[in-house]
Amino acid sequence: MTRPVIGITAYVEPAGWAVWRDVPAVLVPQAYARAVTVAGGRAVVLPPDDRDGDVVGLLDGLLVAGGPDVDPGRYGQPPDPRTESRPDRDAGELTLLTAALAADLPVLGVCRGMQLLAVAAGGALHQHLPDVVGHDRHRPAPGRYGSHRVRFAPGSLAAAVMGDVDRVNSYHHQAVADPGRLAVTGWAEDGVIEAVEDPGRRFVLGVQWHPENEPDPRPVTALVRAARPAGAGPTCPNVLGAAGDADVRHR
Questions:
Q1: Which of 21, 88, 162, 183 is the most exposed place for a label (fewest CB within 10 A)?
Q2: Any idea where the domains of the chain sit in the sequence?
C-alpha cells in the first residue's frame, strides 16, 4: 500500500543541538509530521524556496504549517509594530500554494497557513486580534494555548471533517479579516473566522487552530485521506474513522 506523500512547509530559525548553538536551521514541530504519519501519510519537510513550485509534482498533498505573521505588504497594509513576518516563508509558501492550487492538489492551511490561503485568494488579515475583539483569549500567554467553542456552516467541508467537535485550541494574535475568494465556514464564539475553504476545488481547507496538537487531529487525517493516490486502498482505517464515514473531499 502506497502512503500519500504530504509536504509540510518549514521554518528557518536559529536552533541548537549537541554542541551547536544558534545555527540557522530548517525545522518544523514534530507534531505535524507525527499527525501525518499516524493518519497514514508520508511526511516530507519543505524548506522555504521560491525558485519554482515543481516539487508539487512529487506530492499528493500540501500542509502549510503555522508560524510567524504574513508580511502585511502582501495584502496592501503597512506593518503594525507587533507584526513579526518572515518574507522568505511568504515567498516560498506562496510559490508552493500557486503550484498546488493549479494542480488541484489537496491543501490544508494551519493557523498562519490558513491566513496565507486567504491572502493568496486576495484577502487580508487583522494584524493584532486583541484590538478587534477586545481580549487575548486566542493567545492567552507566550507558549500557552487557549481553548474556545467553534461552529461550522452546515454542509461545508469543515463541518464534514469536524463532525460533532465544538471546541478547539487557539494560539494566534492575527486572524482573517477578508477571506478573498474563499468561503468562510467556521467561526469562534466571538466571531473570529476559524475555517475557510474553496468549494470549487477538490480539497482546500484552512483552520485557525492547531489540529496537529489535538488528540484527534481530524483536519490532518482528512488531508491524508483526500490525498490518497487514485486507485489506492484505505490508509489507516483506525484513524479514518475519526473524520466519519463520509467522503471528506469537497464536491
A1: 21
A2: 5-243
CATH for 5-243 is: 3.40.50.880
- Please, are residues 3 and 41 in contact by the beta-carbon 8 Å criterion? yes
Report how far apart, in Å, the C-alpha atoms of 81 and of each of 19, 133, 136, 173, 210 are.
35, 18, 17, 13, 25
Q: C-alpha cell of 180?
A: 478573498
Which of 126, 138, 172, 210 is flagged as catalytic? 210
Closest by alpha carbon to 209, among 161, 150, 134, 135? Answer: 150
Q: What are 217's three cell numbers?
A: 487531529
236 catalytic? Reply is no
Residue 220 C-alpha cell reads as 490532518
**DSSP structural state of residue 56:** G
Q: What is the pLDDT of residue 164?
A: 94
pLDDT given at position 229: 66
Nine-digit cell string for 174: 492575527
| Residue pointed to by grid coordinates 466519519 | 244
Q: Select which of 93, 194, 197, 212 is catalytic.
A: 212
The model's pTM is 0.91
DSSP state of 79: P
Taking the chain (251 residues) in consecutive chunks of 10 residues, what is each chunk's mean pLDDT?
A: 94 94 96 98 97 97 97 97 95 98 97 98 97 95 95 98 96 97 98 97 97 95 89 46 40 32
Cα dihedral sign, 62-63-69-72: positive
Could you tell me the three cell numbers for 95?
A: 510559490
Name the CA dihedral angle for 237, 166, 159, 64, rounded to a multiple of 10 degrees: -70
